[in-house]
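Transcriptional regulator
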Amino acid sequence: MEHEALFDLPTPNPVPVVMCLDAQWYELMWNGHKTHEFRRRFLTGAPTQWFVYLTAPESRLCAVIDLDVAIEGNPQEIAQIAERMRPGNGATVEPYLARGGREVGYAMPIRRVRQFPGFAAVELEQMLEGFHPPQGYVLVDNHPGWRAVCDKLLSSPVLRETTPSPAP
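Structure:
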């Protein structure tokens, strides 16, 4: 991203998305062991503001994670990033990305993690007609109900915040 400052190019606005995450991976972010998020499909070309819905048993929308622009590569290349992040992790990331014969995967550097009081699934059912945990990712700006929920989340107090250090 240094070239953007060098040429004074504008940085794209983050794209807000809602995605699920297992609590075990979320906790790794807080203890500094997870500096990238890995996905089989993802947006490219812009940073992302990820509204995190923690899966069961937590079942709660409670965090916002700022992700840098996705790094795109084959499963082996992305697994190397995972391995640098946490030794042994590449061995699980590569087969996940390659499942179904996929040839491309994504690594998104985590820039900031903020936790909020959030909303339990029961509350989200009242706020969003037909609520169910997102599959893949939901583009917030395409769904007014999600936009209202995410705005309400951001207006609540931050409980804790961290900025992970990038992997060497």
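The chain has a mean pLDDT of 92.
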